[in-house]
Amino acid sequence: MQYFNPNTILYLNGKFEQAAETTTSLYGQSLHYGYAVFEGIRAYHTHNGTRIFKAREHFERLKRSAELIHMPFPWDVDDLIKQTYKLLALNNLKDAYIRPLIYAAPNMSLVANKDVSIMICAWEWDAYLGHKLLKVCVSSYERPSPKSTPMEAKISGNYANAILATTEAKSKGFDEALLLDMNGNIAEAPGANIFIEKNGRLYTPPLGNILPGITRATVIELCRILDIEVIEKHLSVTDLKHADSAFFCGTATEIAGIASVEDYNFPVKWTESVGATIQRTYKCLVLEKQNYEVII
Ligand code: PMP
What is the C-alpha separation between 4 and 16, in angstroms, rounded? Predict the structure, then answer.
């Protein structure tokens, strides 16, 4: 995966700079302790041009993440959205993944650093191709307790946990890990939320011990429009292994069907599942196709 080339431009503290020539200090809390917050955002090539999906929600969550770890956020969300569109245009990107990161200035102490920088970079991301169904394992790692680190925030340091769980899942021959929370309930994947289907209804873990996914909120909204019942409740591995179907959702993942959890194969064919309906609708939404269909 090539994230940048000699022509790539990134946004750094109000300026557009050559990615290849930008540097950072090796003596900072972000690199050493994971004291940084970030976002993962998608831009889609739609019939209305390049559109950043849920841009405001993502930059608002970035702001909230910064607040939760006592980092200042001296930027205006509207301006950041405007600069991100400019960044995409400067790099001639249409289908893209956008990564804003707020990191601390050089300082190796354990006290919250008030001197912060914002960097936004973007790289090309394949247009939606559909996904193969995933083989999932229940991770031996659990999600950190919200008492140890705010799970509502997208903190860089929390992703050491995600790397461990993903590496373990792949080393055992699975595609993806599913992590439990500190009470043994289903939490989320290393980079996605989960929904399960049972008797035509969808169930998903409540907020509290998981990242409040913007895709998760979008799925719940789509279900309201499509008149599909969604229940937010704590779910056990037994609930999962009695479900009809299940899927992950996230900005990068979009909607990805799950074939199996360890030795349990979901009995409902993916194409006939509620998740497949959500997958089709989500695709129309991100590509802004619903308005298009109304117009023609
Ligand atoms: N959980 C975790 C741990 C994640 O990293 C992500 C990806 N940001 C998600 C859930 C899904 O969140 P979103 O839909 O906002 O991308």
Answer: 14
Tell me whether residue 260 is exposed, middle or buried, using C-beta atoms within 10 angstroms of its C-beta: 0 to 12, 13 to 18, 19 or more: middle
Expressed in angstroms and rounded, the spacing between residue 6 Cα and the centre of ligand 1 is 30
Length of the chain: 296
Determine the distance separating the centroid of ligand 1 and the alpha carbon of 20, expressed in angstroms.
28
Cα–Cα distances (Å) from 60 to 80, 100, 121, 158, in that order, read: 10, 12, 18, 19
For ligand 1, residues with CB inside 6 Å are: 40, 188, 191-193, 211, 213-216, 250-251
Specify the pLDDT at position 131. 76
- Marked catalytic residue, from 15, 135, 147, 154: 154
For residue 211, the CA-to-ligand 1 centroid distance in Å is: 6
> Each residue of 122-147: pLDDT tens digit?
999 986 666 799 999 999 999 999 99
Tens digit of each residue's pLDDT (9 = 90 or more) over 67-91 = 999 999 999 999 999 999 999 999 9
How far is the C-alpha of 149 from the C-alpha of 155, rounded, in Å? 9
Give the model's pLDDT for residue 292: 45
User: Ligand 1: which of 99, 159, 251, 254 to mutate, judged by most atoms within 8 Å of the beta carbon?
Assistant: 251
The CATH number of the structural domain formed by 134-286 is 3.20.10.10
User: pTM for this structure?
Assistant: 0.96
Residue boundaries of the structural domains of the chain: 9-123, 134-286
Active site residue 154: yes
pLDDT tens track for 275-286: 999 999 999 999
H-run or E-run covering 257: strand 254-261
Pick the CATH number of 9-123 from 3.30.230.10, 3.30.470.10, 3.40.50.2000, 3.30.720.120: 3.30.470.10
